[in-house]
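It is worth pausing here to work through a concrete case rather than discussing structure prediction in the abstract. The textbook approach is simple: state the sequence, then state the predicted structure, then interpret. We follow exactly that order.
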Amino acid sequence: MENPVFEQEQYYGEISDVLKKALKNKPLIYRLTGTKSRIYFTKEDENHPPVIYNSGTTLIDNYRDKDGERAITDWKIKLVNQGENPNKVLKTRQDYGTLLHVLYGKILLGETTSFDELKDFIISFADEVKMKKDYVKNLVTSHIDEFKKDMASFLTWLVEYKVEPLGIEVMLKSDELRVATALDLICYVTVEEKGFWGEVYKSGAKKGEPKETKQPVRKLAIVDFKSGKKGFYKKNVLQLLLSKRIFQENFPDLEVEAIFNLAPNDWLTSPTYKFYDQERDTKQIDHLKRIEQNVYDRGMIEFEDLILTKTKMVIKGDININNIVTEDLVSYKSMEEIAEKYYQEYKNQDVFKMLLEEKQIQDVDELRVFLNKKDIVYLKELSKGVGISYTNKDEFMGKLIEKYEKEYK
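Step two, the predicted structure:
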């Protein structure tokens, strides 16, 4: 196993008051990356061991989407015939998608830029997404027209569906499935829906009978972003079904009324997009719902067999030809031990310095703007990391700004 990198994830990204109460006092979710499979864990307190969770993507990875796999294979063959390296192209497309996701999130959070400044705005994400800046600069420069078109599609969708964000990059876990996943967007959308809304035929043979019409309906929805232009696959639907199930486990009093995939089109004259209700295709959704639990069960078995039992090899000791010691040269650590180790290391890190570097905060004004955008739950968690007691927002911000001016300016 590769050396994992420890990262702290907020239990949720950015959420509205509608969701906050239900998540009160929930433990944070932490992530280990650098392993072959992304792994999450929670730690209730110092007296409890870490609890390991699978990732949503890994959980459903055993599902074989023949149509999707065939499309990918055909695409790779086409690239090879064109003299291109499909793995390199795939990596570029994946990184493009990551940057586009971050861009969507920042716009939803109220950050502003312009299409003229979009290239530099996206390049500034490099540290946040843990990519080398020169690589991001080259990727964005070579794809800036696509970024602009995709952002135009996104803005058009926001307006046409009257999108009201409730949660952005919401990290949730399911204790039932032993899985954690991030939901791209939880929001209210307005959709046109057929139904009998009280209208009747005013003339003709059906006069007085109920008339089916369309009417705008406000719905609570989960939206999963995709950057590809070729459409959606069955595995995308399974991802959304899993997200819906985990959401309902965490928010039993809220009902998700629709699950959507959103992707920009490669439009020519005016911005368009695909916004597909994945529960609309009743034949497909019925089939997937029938096999859904089997997919989860297989995923959980693989998780228990391959992840929870997996260990990391550790080789340590002095290298000295005059005193070669082979006893205890090689040892193994469980995932729980690895999680505990990185949890303790994180606790001893300078959380405030990490925050300043990650968000590229250069002065007091930038720090104040950043803190003002955060809710009380975020600030309370931050207070634990920086060692400043939280009484109220203004007092905590004042103490943190004072700390910045004394120690970091």
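Step three, interpretation. The chain has two domains: 5-304, 349-407. DSSP finds 14 helices and twelve strands in the chain.
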